[in-house]
Amino acid sequence: MKTKEQYVAFLRGINVGGHHKLPMADLKKEMEKLGFENIVTLLNSGNVVFDSVSDTVENLEVKISKHLEQAFGFPVPTIIRTAKTIDELLRSNPFEHVSLTKDIRL
Predict the structure, then answer these.
(1) For domain 4-92, which CATH number applies: 2.60.40.10, 3.30.70.1280, 3.40.50.2300, 3.30.70.1560?
(2) H-run or E-run covering 78
(3) Can you give the pTM of this predicted structure?
(4) pLDDT at residue 55, as a whole number
């Protein structure tokens, strides 16, 4: 039996300035068609958390990007990270020593 893992997808260049509109409800349906589970989207950002049978992030990036381009008619560059990687990044607090100013925001 293959194990499942949680992933985070960052879809680039969608819902920006009225271009490349991709409704999150439609995105969720397309992700379900790919066999993903427990899909959660974040606002209209194009950020998606989902569960899948363990795979390489590279394979998932290509699979999702190609499918979404076919479904919506425009390229959807996709970056995937495991939820574990995102959690490790947050725990490392990479901006701990960055001083916030009016020009620097997190």
Answers:
(1) 3.30.70.1280
(2) strand 78-82
(3) 0.84
(4) 87
